[in-house]
Design goal:
alpha/beta; Rossmann fold; globular; magnesium
Length: about 160
C-alpha cells in the first residue's frame, strides 16, 4: 500500500489544503493528514480542534486519516511506513523553504520522497493566515474555507474579539 503524509498546521484548514489532500488521494492508497504540533506557533485552534475540523471536512474520505504528532516528520513517516510527504506549493518562496525541508527529511530518512503539488491558480494567494486575518476584521471567508467548518471559524474569531 502506498502511504503518504500531508503535514501542516492547518490553522484552520482551507479549500487549498483540501484540494491538495484530494489530489494526493488520486496518487496514494492512504493519506495521513498530520497536524503538526509546534509550540513556537501561536495557533487559533488547539491541536484537537484542528483535527476535528479536518475530520469534519474529510468524513467521506475513507482513505484519509487525520492525526497529530510532535517530533521529526522523517521519523514519523518511517514509523508509519509512509513512502512520501505531499506538500502544496503556492509560490517560489514556498519552494525554497520546502526544498530545504525535503532535503533534510531525505537525509534523515533516505526512503522518503517529497512530492510537490502546485496549487490551483485560484488558490495561489490562500493561506490559513490570510483566512484568520480576513475573518478577524469581519470579512467573508466563505470562498476560502470548506462550508462545513465556516461556522466553527466564525465562532472562534468572534469569541477571540470579545
Amino acid at each position: 500500500m502506498k502511504l503518504a503524509i500531508c503535514p501542516g498546521s492547518f490553522d484552520p484548514v482551507t479549500i487549498g489544503h483540501l484540494d491538495i489532500i484530494g489530489r494526493a488521494r488520486k496518487i496514494f492508497d492512504h493519506v495521513i493528514v498530520a497536524v503538526m504540533v509546534n509550540p513556537e506557533k501561536h495557533t487559533m485552534f488547539t491541536t484537537e480542534e484542528r483535527i476535528a475540523l479536518i475530520q469534519k471536512c474529510t468524513k467521506d474520505m475513507e482513505d484519509v486519516e487525520v492525526v497529530s504528532f510532535d517530533g521529526l516528520l522523517a521519523d514519523y513517516a518511517k514509523m508509519r511506513g509512509a513512502t512520501a510527504i505531499v506538500k502544496g506549493l503556492r509560490a517560489m518562496s514556498d519552494f525554497e523553504y520546502e526544498f530545504q525541508q525535503a532535503l533534510t527529511n531525505r537525509k534523515l530518512n533516505p526512503e522518503l520522497e517529497t512530492v510537490f503539488m502546485i496549487t490551483r491558480a485560484e488558490n495561489m494567494f490562500l493561506s490559513s493566515s490570510i483566512v484568520k486575518q480576513i475573518a478577524s476584521f469581519g470579512g467573508d471567508v466563505s470562498n476560502f474555507v470548506p462550508a462545513c467548518i465556516l461556522d466553527d471559524i466564525k465562532e472562534r474569531i468572534y469569541a477571540a474579539k470579545k
